[in-house]
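Customer escalation, tier 2.

The customer says the design service returned an amino acid string that "doesn't look like it belongs to this structure." They asked us to rerun it and document both sides in this ticket. The original structure tokens are below, unchanged.
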């Protein structure tokens, strides 16, 4: 082939690549984002068995992802500012090759049992060592390729920001596909293999994009206009507008996943909506006009403000929908303002670097700072209130005029708070309607002030303060927070009962006063799910009667310590609890007396039961699985690997008792399927005898029991309500496979 022919073909190839540049760049950004956001739920799922499945794991994971995004954006900024586009392309391809050497993805060596304190730091280190390099390199794609396209000389290169929509569409697709197409059908090993193949394809597409950058067509472009550096006021504005939605995505995720399940299915919903807002607004024709979004804000903030800080969660689907819709609208507001304030393409990497800094600021505040500073989840309402100040004109009048507009509702908020801390007044259940009417009145004023965002902000604060401090039928006794959630100790309005809440779910109730007001003495009486005569107590008492000997019991999940009062003299009981704060509350007789009155010498092993129970040298007649995070049962305690560990610690004729009461998930089929896979048989009982909680504080429980043979369960199957349970085609869960959606569908239908 002559040099002329070769040059002609190269010219044709360059020309063709140049014409198809928007398609090549869009496809590359789509795949890059697809891989970037598929790895987030995938790798976090790998980590779950190590840390008890707490929603805080995802909060810390998001902080890591945002920090890695910042690192990638900073690298892209440095690369475009320090090197020619051609040299920068070669450097980036070389770094992609180095990152490929770390594949397939997996947990790095050296990360065994997590520490009991500073878990956040340990978790960040695990993520950094395991996926830090490939994730950071991938995250550089969005700003880097947009900058390359802006410099390509292509006729459509004047607004490279529209490519960001393609990037976020890839992210959204990954998050939507994970729970519906990936998690139910592929095990983690298969997922990581497919991800590695996708990474190889991405390298090819980036090389093609680099050819566009390096092609002769670039020589025809006009000289780039040197734009002035952005002002610091602009940078701070970009950071703030990115920080609020970034913090909200962490806060909303923790809020909605606390009561359902610590699982990727729920974690990805807010993140997917967050990314969808970029697709919606980083567009020459936004899906919703900015004025429409501004109009919607008061109508989604009002119901959020009056319901977020308290109240019942009976209509969980409606509650989750409300939070997701509110989050979506507020994020559209912030990102719409961000796009409106975007700079010229020459400042593109400055812009994305500032937004990534904002992402880290919001994530660090919500995921790391707030849990260690606030005793309740104040970060969520704070961010919602700050989002209101993003509305046009909120701060236009200057500091004095803004404060003047906020003054009246903020003064009422301060008065409500001072009355709460200065008096013992409680709102009884009889006044519940009046309380709700007060909240509706605040919401009405909030909406009426929609044309005055500063005043609207004040009413949002008033709604949060009022709903958080005055809940009918309860008076707060103690509130504390740990990595694993918020714990509230409250007294009933009549002063006779003390309740332990984790999130929105009761984890223990003790009667502290008699009807005549005198303190209750003697052994504490187990209530709620643990009342004498319920299936949990029955599984312990009937087993003791059948074996006719002192029991050896392992109880996973301490709560208030209720079941400790079923221990008898000479028996060997051990509690396995992951949260040090729960241990503190249960051991303090000023809060709960179950341990102090029934088992003051009770042995409590701190740490995740998957690890600590397996490491135990003892064997048990009864292993009771009663671990909850609010209303969510950690999925990693229901897998084949987990049950195999329990079985190794079970004595002959012993039983494994699963407390599976849940408003959202059908779990008996999963327990039966996992048990069958391990050669065990299963029975269940759904108790319906506790029907008057407001009067006696007893709750019906759903319990499943596994044993090696039917003979080991004969003592329970003779009792009323116990029946065999079959898997009925349910696939057993493992550490690298679970199907949350099917469990929710079975529960519903």
């Amino acid at each position: 082939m002559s040099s002329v022919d070769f040059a002609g073909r190269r010219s044709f190839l360059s020309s063709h690549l140049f014409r198809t540049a928007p398609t090549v760049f869009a496809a590359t950004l789509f795949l890059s984002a697809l891989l970037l956001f598929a790895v987030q739920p995938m790798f976090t799922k790998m980590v779950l068995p190590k840390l008890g499945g707490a929603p805080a794991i995802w909060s810390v994971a998001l902080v890591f992802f945002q920090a890695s995004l910042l690192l990638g954006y900073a690298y892209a900024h440095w690369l475009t500012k320090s090197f020619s586009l051609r040299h920068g392309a070669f450097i980036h391809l070389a770094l992609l090759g180095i990152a490929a050497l770390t594949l397939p993805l997996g947990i790095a060596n050296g990360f065994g049992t997590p520490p009991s304190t500073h878990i956040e730091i340990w978790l960040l280190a695990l993520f950094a060592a395991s996926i830090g390099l490939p994730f950071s390199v991938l995250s550089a794609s969005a700003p880097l390729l947009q900058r390359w396209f802006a410099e390509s000389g292509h006729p459509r290169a004047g607004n490279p920001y529209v490519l960001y929509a393609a990037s976020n569409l890839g992210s959204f697709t990954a998050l939507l596909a994970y729970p519906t197409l990936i998690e139910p059908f592929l095990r983690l090993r298969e997922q990581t293999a497919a991800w590695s193949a996708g990474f190889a394809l991405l390298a090819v597409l980036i090389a093609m994009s680099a050819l566009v950058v390096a092609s002769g067509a670039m020589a025809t472009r006009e000289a780039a206009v040197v734009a002035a550096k952005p002002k610091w006021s602009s940078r701070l504005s970009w950071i703030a507008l990115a920080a609020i939605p970034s913090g909200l995505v962490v806060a909303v995720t923790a809020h909605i996943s606390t009561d359902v399940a610590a699982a990727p299915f729920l974690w990805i919903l807010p993140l997917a909506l967050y990314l969808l807002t970029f697709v919606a607004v980083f567009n020459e024709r936004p899906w919703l006009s900015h004025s429409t979004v501004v109009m919607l804000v008061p109508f989604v903030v009002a119901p959020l403000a009056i319901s977020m800080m308290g109240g019942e969660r009976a209509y969980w689907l409606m509650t989750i929908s409300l939070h997701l819709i509110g989050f979506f609208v507020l994020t559209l507001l912030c990102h719409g303002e961000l796009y409106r304030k975007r700079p010229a393409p020459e400042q593109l990497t400055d812009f994305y670097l500032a937004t990534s800094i904002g992402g880290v600021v919001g994530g660090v505040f919500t995921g790391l700072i707030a849990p260690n500073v606030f005793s309740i989840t104040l970060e969520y309402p704070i961010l919602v209130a700050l989002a209101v100040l993003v509305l046009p004109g909120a701060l236009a009048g200057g500091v004095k005029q803004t404060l003047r507009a906020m003054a009246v509702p903020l003064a009422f908020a301060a008065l409500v708070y001072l009355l709460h801390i200065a008096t013992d007044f409680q709102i009884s259940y009889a006044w519940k309607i009046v309380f709700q009417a007060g909240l509706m009145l605040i919401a009405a004023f909030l909406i009426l002030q929609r044309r005055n965002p500063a005043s609207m902000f004040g009413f949002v604060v008033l709604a949060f303060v009022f709903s958080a401090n005055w809940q009918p039928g309860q008076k707060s006794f103690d509130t504390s927070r740990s990595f694993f959630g918020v714990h509230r100790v409250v007294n009933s309005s009549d002063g006779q009962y003390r309740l332990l809440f984790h999130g929105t779910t009761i984890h223990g109730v003790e009667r502290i006063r008699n009807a005549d007001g005198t303190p209750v003495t003697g052994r504490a009486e187990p209530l709620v799910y643990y009342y004498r005569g319920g299936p949990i107590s029955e599984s312990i008492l009937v087993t003791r009667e059948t074996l006719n000997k002192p029991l050896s019991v392992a109880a996973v999940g301490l709560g208030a310590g209720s079941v400790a009062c079923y221990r008898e003299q000479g028996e060997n009981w051990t509690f396995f609890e992951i949260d040090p704060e729960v241990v503190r509350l249960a051991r303090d007789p000023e809060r709960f007396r179950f341990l102090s009155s029934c088992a003051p010498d009770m042995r409590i092993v701190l740490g995740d039961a998957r690890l600590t129970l397996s490491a135990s040298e003892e064997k048990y007649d009864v292993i009771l699985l009663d671990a909850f995070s609010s209303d969510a049962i950690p999925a990693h305690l229901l897998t084949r690997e987990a049950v195999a560990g329990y079985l190794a610690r079970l004595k002959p004729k012993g039983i494994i008792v699963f407390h599976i009461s849940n408003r959202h998930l059908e779990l008996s089929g999963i327990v039966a399927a996992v048990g069958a896979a391990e050669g065990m048989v299963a029975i269940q009982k759904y108790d319906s005898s506790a029907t008057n909680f407001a009067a006696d504080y007893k709750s019906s429980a759903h319990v499943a029991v596994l044993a090696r043979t039917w003979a080991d369960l004969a003592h329970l199957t003779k009792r009323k309500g116990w029946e065999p349970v079959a898997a009925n085609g349910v696939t057993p869960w493992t550490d690298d496979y679970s199907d949350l959606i099917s469990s929710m569908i079975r529960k519903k239908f």
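Tier 2 assessment: The sequence is consistent with the input. The chain has three domains: 3-219+230-388, 398-472, 535-748. Residues 1-13, 216-225 have pLDDT under 50 and may be disordered. Sent an explanation to the customer and offered a walkthrough call.
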